[in-house]
Design goal:
The chain has 244 residues and is mostly helical. It has a domain of 103 residues: Non-ribosomal Peptide Synthetase Peptidyl Carrier Protein, Chain A (Orthogonal Bundle). Helix content is 45%, strand content 0%. The chain contains 10 helices and no strands. It is flat.
């Protein structure tokens, strides 16, 4: 059997590949097109000369206004209105309240407070007696106390809103605050800040009287003289006992 030897012709294959630039080439040949020109650095002497020769506007000294009750801007209604330049404060408390309209002096103010407060309670909860109602519902309490503030023309602090949960408590609070014999404080006047320690009883807030430095020095001198006299008296008594 004859075998024919096959001829295998090997051919070298050629191929072309796309030239891919290296990442390093980007940093090497990259040039910023829109480069902003650098600001030339001026010499220190030149800068000082520019500052000295530059014309400046004259400095006018403005008078410092210290807020207080002695300022006519706050005590005089006409000056205050002019300073506001037409600005209007929007407040939900009326200038003339229902309580002030009823409290004409024909009856004790305690009766006026009790009658008006009873009407407010009947408006919100007509089916329950006012003295028996417990304001555990916060939405109802805040709604009722807001009307109390409007009808009586007085604001109630936030801390009191969390404490006044019954008719009796609200009535006692209003009687104490609206007492004509007590000193009234206008919260809109800067120097009329008044904090009653009784209002913060049972809380983590302590209200104390401010002691001026001059008062402290006087008290220290007083205590020093008292201690010195006691010391001299003790020395004299010891000497007298020694002579005996």
């Amino acid at each position: 059997m004859l075998r024919t030897r096959g001829l295998f012709i090997s051919a070298r294959q050629f191929h072309n590949s796309v030239v891919r630039p290296s990442v390093l080439d980007y940093f090497k040949f990259y040039k910023k097109k829109d480069a902003t020109p650098e600001t030339p650095i001026k010499d220190t002497k030149e800068v000082i000369k520019e500052i000295e020769t530059k014309a400046r506007d004259p400095v006018t000294s403005n008078k410092v206004v210290i807020l207080g009750k002695h300022n006519s801007e706050f005590s005089d209604a006409k000056i205050s209105q002019k300073a506001l330049e037409g600005f209007v404060f929007s407040t939900w408390l009326p200038q003339k309240s229902e309580f002030s309209n009823r409290n004409t002096g024909s009856q004790p103010y305690q009766e006026v407070v009790s009658e008006l407060l009873t009407e407010i309670f009947k408006t919100h909860v007509p089916s329950i007696n006012a003295s028996d109602l417990k304001l555990d519902d916060l939405a109802l309490r805040f709604k009722l106390l807001k009307e109390v503030q409007i009808k009586f023309g007085t604001s109630i602090p936030d801390i009191k809103l969390s404490q006044l949960d019954s008719f009796d408590k609200i009535e006692r609070y209003l009687l104490a605050k609206l007492d004509p014999k007590s000193q009234l404080f206008n919260e809109k006047v800067p120097d009329a800040v008044h904090l009653d320690p009784k209002e913060f009883e049972g809380t983590n807030i302590t209200v104390g009287e401010y002691v001026f430095e001059s008062q402290k020095r006087k008290e220290i001198k007083k205590l020093y003289r008292k201690a010195k006299n006691a010391e001299q008296k003790a020395i004299q008594e010891a000497l007298n006992d020694g002579e005996k």
